[in-house]
Amino acid sequence: MTRPFWRSGVCCVLIAARTLSGQSLDQVTAHNVKLEPVEYSGKHAVRVTTDDTVPNGAAYAIVKNAVFHNGAIEVEVAGRPAAGAFAAARGFIGVAFRVHEGQFEYIYLRPTNGRAEDQVRRNHSTQYSAFPNFDFAVLRQQSPEKYESYVDLEPGVWTRYRITVEGTKARLYVNGATQPCLIVDDLKLGDSSGGVALWIGPGTEGYFTGLAIKPAP
Questions:
Q1: What is the spatial distance between Cα 115 and Cα 125, in angstroms, rounded to a whole number?
Q2: What average pLDDT does range 168-187 have in this prediction?
Q3: 6, 68, 94, 167: which one has the fewest Cβ atoms less than 10 Å from its Cβ?
């Protein structure tokens, strides 16, 4: 990962294999994950993996020197269940934001749900959660269907992911859509600020490229 650069109020972190060895990997801090520079499906990327002993929500790579309050975060992701993963693995992949003192908000995809033959699984293609107290199970019990939605996804396929955040509101846009596929109006950690991280769930083999962090004016 190259060193962040600032231009016109935009902090861009570009992921490219030519700069993903040695010092470039120093631009992220691994937290319960393994990071590798790779060429995947025609793109230079960071491969992020973890093992099944890591608690749900606790596997991510923090982008150094990134402080995010309001604005947009864009990245291309490809997630799929890792070889030998447990049966319920979905290729969970997304972005954590406002990371601070072990807490963060995160929005992620479940790629294997996007084209499942079961409609309920399709309805769970996207997910908002907040770590550590509001994982998918807690939110699903407290507010069924409110923090999940359907969007067309394929496991292991590059997917354009974009979130916008303003105060206690967040929106998820997938593959260049002009309308959000997930709307969150009550971020559980409130109107806060903090870091940004590349996030994966249990049993996931994840790939990230082209990360751009764009603070609001």
A1: 9
A2: 98
A3: 6
